[in-house]
Amino acid sequence: MGEVRAPSRGSPMKQKPRTAQLKQARAWEKAERVPQVPEVMRAAAIDRFGGPEVMSVQLLPVPQLGSDEVLIATHTAGVGPWDLEIREGGYGGRTRFPLILGVDGSGIVVARGARVRRFQIGDSIYAYSWNNAKGGFYAEYVAMPAQKAGQIPKTLDLKHAGAIATTGLTALQGIDDTLRVRRGETIVVHGATGGVGTLAVQFAKLRGAKVFGTAHHRDGLALLRRLGVDAAIEGRADIIAEELGHLAPDGIDAVLALVGGEALERAIDALRPGGRIAYPNGVEPKPRRRRGLAARSYDAISGPPQFQRLGRAVDATDLKVVFAGTYPLTKAADAHRRLAAGHVLGKVVLRVR
What's the pLDDT score for residue 95? Predict the structure, then answer.
């Protein structure tokens, strides 16, 4: 397990020893293996769409368990830009209030449905479930389909696993399934300092690629170097083309686009004929279509095979998880404000337990 805390500008990054950190985390897991399930729980929920101020900590019933579901005592909940859009009503559709946000996180299985065989009571798991019918991870308990969860990799504790369920699946599936990155290829991860990008550069290195990452400001560039990129490039349109021309005069093979805009278009200019572009749905503006270049959008898929592959990649990579901020459940609104402020290096999470 690796933990990298996003540094203040100009400050060196320090990393706690892996073994001591993991030992401490496992001690918590053992002590809190199966909490007694109450009838009500604390949850950060909304009663209407709006800004961060519409979120409040409420006492709500612990969700009832279906036959194919697990009940998770939440330890860590991920906070992503999609949560902000859901809070603002940006995804449409019918909504039942109060709405508990949070599409991913980690915790301990405290109950399981009659048809669940993959998990036992007391298992440490992490999960990603979009638009979960019984509420999200901004709560002390979440009930969700067992098929949307996975066993936590051996090299991660609950906090680190809770930070990467969505971002890890998105990063790995972009590198492996959409771009099909191969050993010896050259890839640009554009917007590489966010929750997805910091993982994507590590997975691309695991596949044997030469990796260029783009970032803003000195602290973002320093972070990418710490993560092992072959070159860290200032993510400005007037710089990217020149830098890539020097670094890869024969062109690059692939671009993983995690932010849109003119700088992305300049990075795409550096692709060789037949080059590939991948971007998660939600990246705006989308890259412009170009003759001779394959551009594919994708959504992260969660399921048993996907979590198994992610676990193998995590353990093989000695993954470094970058935290931009850790907030208690009662400060969920502050976590959203931090994310909205921009220049977020890594992942923002909520500490539920």
Answer: 82
